[in-house]
Amino acid sequence: MEEPRIGVFICHCGINIGAYVKVPDLVDYVQELPNVVYSERNLFTCSEEGVSAIKKAIKEHDLNRVVVASCTPRTHETLFRAACEEAGLNKYLFEFVNIRDQCSWVHMKEPEKATEKAGDLIRMGIAKARLLQPLEEIEIKVAPSAMVIGGGVVGMEAALNLAKQDFDVHLVEKEPELGGTLRSINMLFQTNQEAAKLVKTLAEQVKSHPRIKTHLSSKIKQVTGFIGNFEVKLDNKAGESEFSVGTIIVAVGAESLKPEGQYGYGKLANVVTQLELEEKMKKGEPAGQNVVMINCVGARVPERTYCSRICCMTAIKNASLIKEANPKAKVWVLHRDLMTYGVDFENHYRRAMELGVRFIRYSLDRPPEVIGEKKVEKLKVYHELWRREIELPCDTLVLTTPLIPSEDNKDISRMLKVSMDEFGFLLEAHLKLRPVEFAMDGVYICGSVRWPTDVTEGVSQAYAAAAKAAGPLRMGYVKAEAINAAVDEEACSGCGVCELLCSFQAIELQPKGDKRVSHVNEALCKGCGTCSAACPSGAISMHHFTDEQILAQVEALFS
Amino acid sequence: MMAGFEPQIIAFCCNWCTYAAADLAGTSRMHYPPNVRIVRVMCSGMVDPIYVLKAFEGGVDGILVAGCHLTDCHYIDGPVKCDETVNKLREVLHVLGLEDKRLRREMVAASEGVLFAQVINEMVEDLKKLGPSPFKAKTEALA
How far apart are CA A438 and CA A332, in angstroms? Predict the structure, then answer.
């Protein structure tokens, strides 16, 4: 290895660091450390001036390592790495030392000790920098096609969006027809549009689009590979089919809970769910003269604590439709809280009251009671505001049930290596920063598979997911993280602990001469480093976080 | 408790959660004792037992190994692997005669700046009660 020539840049961050840490003293101090050939301080190292100073010093002092002591790598590492690259230095020869968020800001009351700590941290950073190695990010080719799992409205919108951007799309639906949950739904709220019309329009567009290949009655048997090259195996009537895609969108939606045994559901003739009511209304069957709806059936209860969000609006929609069709009908909505979020929903609720829909609040301690032998005759309800029990006549009891995660989510989670939450919904990479992406690169999420959404939200998410999924397809390649595991094949004993531990199936034992050694698939490796920590032969090291580098950092504390 | 004794702590913090929590403690201007030096690692699961042993050998008084909670690991199940490592390390430390409280394992999410500060506060307090690491004296005698 060439002799390290380290440049150290210490930032005042205005007064954020400079007022508590004696920056000039540190600049002098680091100059005494081995391999440090240059050091300076900047009012703001991240400013145009600071960045230019780094680039200038790299050239003038022939620096081959750069250390910046300032804020946090989480916000500024990219900037300083880019500065190094622009000056012709590999960006992995840069080391960040955090002396603001983790030093000056938390030790404002002890400036002496903050300075001492900053000195230690910088010395530790320099010790690591001395051992840094240049790294290259490998480029992975991306097949210019995508798969969308789920042929409901959200999946269809995502597929159409990608197809219109000129990418081939495989749309996979387990049912023999496109449309998903919307096929059972009568009218869509807010617009009062027939759901069937929307489904029909979309399905026709999908079927006639030359870029979309629709696979109906198909189940995904296996997905292997990684971003750019997912190999997919489908099971369907025609037997098995196989194709490869660059990115994947998961839009499998959710299911409506069937509340077996609750309020006589499944036993008494006139008890239906909102979804079943919609199917009846769609056929033109009357809902009845006295309709009672109970909200939050199976939702926000100890065994299912979440709020399914869209069901209050579903109840309000159907209650309004009943009143509009038959103003003489009586409709009661028994609710616990009312969730009327979003554009115009509050108006929708107000309008329902104007139409004569009656809203009565009940509590979980005293739920409504069903009276009747073969069918529901009436309901006993404890009116929370009146603080007394009332009786309601009832010829149709409608139970408002939540959307629940599909059982298929388990298979998807396993095959695509994506996380599930405690309820069984699939989890995005980050709620705010990466809302339609999974942590697994190249796989995206939209619609109710994440959390109950209405059509409007689902479609917005479909567009977002399609835009994200199109990115790598358009680029034609992706860069894999250079911080990954590397195997010293000489030292590897072939024990296979790494293969067992790896959560990304990125390591496997492969024959090499007369033994078997581990082999890292760089496209799959995420760089967590668990294999390197566990390797009993010390044969695996993590690029950029090698044992030598971390131990040098630790030992520098004591020097 | 030893008068004037300031314990030295190394904290191995995962890049995604605890390192971010330590940043959050900073942006929220919380205050905790300046006894800790953070070493950034990508995942708590990558903390090799040798890092901990070498740090104790060097004379550090306490070590924190901290990362994501079980459910929000960036690498699916790093914390599980970290727990296994730390549990095994505890046996070794026991044999070496190091008190249990010198090695602390925590899960601190990116949003838990308060918890991070609290953990450091508690560790400093605990270590002040314990006094310097028995290895510190040996290391200093050798030096």
Answer: 42
Name the pTM for this structure: 0.69
DSSP A307-340: --SSHHHHHHHHHHHHHHH-TTSEEEEEESS---
Question: Number of CB pairs < 8 Å for A and B?
Answer: 129
Q: Which CATH architecture has domain A258-402?
A: 3-Layer(bba) Sandwich (3.50)
Contacts A110 to B, Cβ<8 Å: 34
* Same fold for the pair A6-135 and A145-253+406-478: no
Residue type, A122: I
- Strand B62-67 with B103-107, pairing: parallel
Q: Which of 1.10.1660, 3.40.50, 2.40.128, 3.40.1000 would CATH assign to domain A6-135?
A: 3.40.50
B88, containing H or E segment: helix B78-96
Question: Two tokens at B99?
Answer: 């008190």
Residues of A in contact with B31 (CB under 8 A): 106-109
Tokens 């604590």 -> residue: A305
| Cβ–Cβ under 8 Å, residues B102 and B94 | no
Whether the Cβ atoms of residue A449 and residue A252 lie closer than 8 Å to each other: yes
Chain A hits for B38, CB-CB cut-off 8 Å, are 98, 102, 121
Joined together, the tokens standing for residue A308 give: 């399914």
Task: Considering only the beta carbons, identify the residue of B10, B54, B75 that sits closest to A503.
Answer: B75
What architecture does CATH give domain A485-543? 2-Layer Sandwich (3.30)
Q: How many CB atoms lie within 10 A of CB B121?
A: 15
pLDDT tens-place string over residues A142-175:
999 999 999 999 999 999 999 999 999 999 999 9
Residue A481: pLDDT band by 50, 70, 90 thresholds? confident
CA distance A374 to A396: 13
